[in-house]
Specification:
Radius of gyration: 38 Å
Protein name: serine-type D-Ala-D-Ala carboxypeptidase
Strand content: 15-25%
Pfam family, one: Transpeptidase
Pathway: Cell wall biogenesis; peptidoglycan biosynthesis
Membrane topology: Single-pass membrane protein
Number of domains: 4
CATH class of the largest domain: Alpha Beta
Organism: Lysinibacillus odysseyi 34hs-1 = NBRC 100172
Helix content: 25-40%
Length: 734
Amino acid sequence: MKKLKFRFQIGAFLMFLLYGGLFFLLFWRFFYIQSTGEVHGYNLQAEAANKYSRETVLSANRGRILDRNENVIAEDTMSYRLVAVVRESATENPKKPRHVVDARETARVLAQYISWDEEKIYEQLTSKKDKYQVEFGAAGRSLSHEVKEAIEEHDLPGIVFVNDKKRYYPNGSFASHLIGYAVKEEQKDGSFKTVGRMGLESIYDKELTGKDGKVSYDSDVFGYLLPDAKKMVEPAKNGKDIYLTLDKTIQNFLEDAMSRVEKEYNAESMTAVVADPKTGEILAMTQRPTFDPDTREGLESSWLNAVVEDVIEPGSTMKTFTLAAAVDSGNWHPNATYQSGKYKLYDRVIRDSNNGVGWGPITYLEGIQHSSNTGMAHQLEIMGKETFIEYLDRFGFGKKTGINLPNEATGTLLTKNPVDLVITSFGQGSTVTPLQLIQGMTAIANDGKMMQPYVIDKIVDPNTGKVVLDEEPKVKGEPVTADTAKQVREILASTVTAEAGTAKRYQIDGYEVAGKTGTAQIPRENGPGYYGGNHQYIYSFLGMVPADDPKLIMYVAVKKPNMSSAISGSEPVSAVFNSVMENSLKYLNINPDNTAEVEMKTVGELVGKQAETTQVELTNDGFKPIIIGEGGTITEQYPKKGTPLSKGSIIFLKTEGAVTLPSFTNWSLRNMLVYKTMSGLPLEIVGEGYVYSQSASANAVVTDSSPIVVKLRTPKESFQTTEPEEDSEKLPQD
């Protein structure tokens, strides 16, 4: 019995040691884990956070690019990313497959909508079955809503779309070489980022790029937010917005005119820029060939912003500054005469544009009007080379303007050799940029003050509203006096109006134009000398309007237009200049020179009066009263009492009874909307601008609810370029 008891006690003791030891080890393990937070080298807190913490990225928008009136030029917009689920386990119900079932058919369909071919798509769908889903690189990103819907119509199993963003350029080819473009590019970590690759998109990529935010929270195994769990939000910071000096309306005038002329004359290249001479602000800038920043179609032609980065021999537009130098230095004698035709310098002969025949003895003023090369040579002889070189420097030639754009060219002034200096005086040999010509012209247009061109108005942080960059007009210098500038404008205006003027084609009805035509030779790319033959030149015009107080200056150049020998080289140039200038002046409400001062009169209280009597009184006062109704007592008027109106303005008088339609011809959109509201008639107003047709004739009494269609069009749509006289300027020959 004792033996049995002893054995039991030993057994119990051993069991105690075993379980006690196990308990101690377990206790020690708990203590160790609690104190260190690690198991087999893994941090439990980190593992738990990894399993139960959730983080959602809040995508930042890339900054917008806008014009001076806050019209969007470039912005981020909603797009879609194409994803294909390839793992079979994603499908729970075979009747409703959630993975790609038929890879071949799926590849065939997708190849119709993305840039990958069928075989490449098929390989992507079948070679990565170990993955849950696959994507299609840049080809499957930035898809439009239309493409998404088209693919969804095929009802392909396993094909899903994820919301994404893309850079959107709503205006198409719109100052494309200035704006540039941005695209999504895959980064080293496999993520995608929008990166600027050209123009302002590239130059200001850092400022435009935003910083993604995130939402962090603890969840259960199903991903739901745990009770009392903290939700941490780090907001996204959108990229900065860039406001340009461009005016969308003027830029569209320019783009339309350039496209029209490019199509008609098939020129090798074209360049144009419009600026405000009082401030130096660039209002429009473009070139041809151009490209669509959304598709990059046409980009292979040229990556240079020609206005800033390209150099040309300016041709006779340079005579503007030779003339200004002569006037300002006291060496201009407009009524003095010289023998035109030829000018000999050492072994070189300078010839006028009519093959050196000239126009006999003519005055220096007539020489400018004829665009005489020999006149400039004689003028340089009078003025002296040192004086001329000094004024070239004053006008900023041979150095950068300082515009807020990179890669600006300086051009090259050839002034050491006497022959080079002479041909520089009329625009050959030396090179300039179109932007330098614009900058120099601001001094002539702005009473001697030369304004530095600029295209960035301001940069704003949309997250705080803070303006981080604010550009202001900057006077670059005063190369000539105000009196000189005024005199030069008058002389340049005579090249448009004088019988001998080379710029007669640039006349704009109602506005006085001042400017200088140019015909520049083009250096051969391979070998010395210049291209020769029919229209193998750069035709240009540097002008301003109105001549007495210019509000706009513009430079247009057309290189090697394809046209018959009977057509003047200034024809395609003037087609751009005249159209853009006239439409822009009207858009800016710059009245024609022959517009008289408008007399204003205040509208009185008309409600309660008799319509017929009031109609006579208003007509005698110079207004155009429109009665809406059968007549009798006026129940409503527009405009209201106290509104100042000019003579010829419409005043609406509402009465009771049936409505008789007036003639809507030349009514503005605003007046049409007022009439529609007051009359209650079923008017369908189509277009913008001014009325040119109506479906129901004037004086018809409206008796039913049939819609009346009224069509409008803008002055731009109505504008037809008048056929100007032939330009007499031709190639200057040595």
